Amino acid sequence: MQEIFEEVVSAFHDLKDISSSSYARRIIILEILANLRLCVLMLDVGCDDLIMEMFQIFFSVAMYVL
């Protein structure tokens, strides 16, 4: 299960690149993550480090946009 979450988080690394051909896929993955509340499942299986990494990516993208 953790390997799947690692792949999901790795998909967000290039989220800043809106001109990428896979940007739309990354957004869809992000929407699925939010709709299914997979962050809660990630906490339940002990993927705290992945959650920290994911939010660091989100904050860096937010700072890039601002």
What does this structure look like?
With 66 residues, this protein is mainly α. The protein has one domain (2-65). The chain has 4 helices and no strands. Helix 1 packs parallel to helix 4 (48-65). The longest helix is centred in the C-terminal third of the chain and has 18 residues, at 48-65. The N and C termini lie far apart (34 Å). The model has no long low-confidence stretch (mean pLDDT 93).
Give a quick precis of the structure.
The chain is mainly alpha-helical and 66 residues long. It has 4 helices and no strands.
Cα-based radius of gyration, to the nearest Å: 12 Å
Topology as a string of helices (H) and strands (E): HHHH
How many alpha or pi helices? 4
Alpha-beta content class? mainly alpha
Total number of strands: 0
Q: Could you say which overall geometry the principal axes of the C-alpha atoms support? A: globular
End-to-end separation in angstroms reads: 34 Å
Oligomer: single chain
Pick out the low-confidence regions: none
Count of all domains? 1
> How would you characterize the largest beta sheet?
none
Proportion of strand residues: under 5%
* Mean pLDDT score: 93
Tell me roughly what share of residues is in helical segments: over 70%
Summarize this structure as a short list of keywords or feature phrases:
single chain, 66 residues, globular, 73% helix, mainly alpha
Write the layout of secondary structure elements.
Layout: H1 2-11, H2 23-35, H3 38-44, H4 48-65
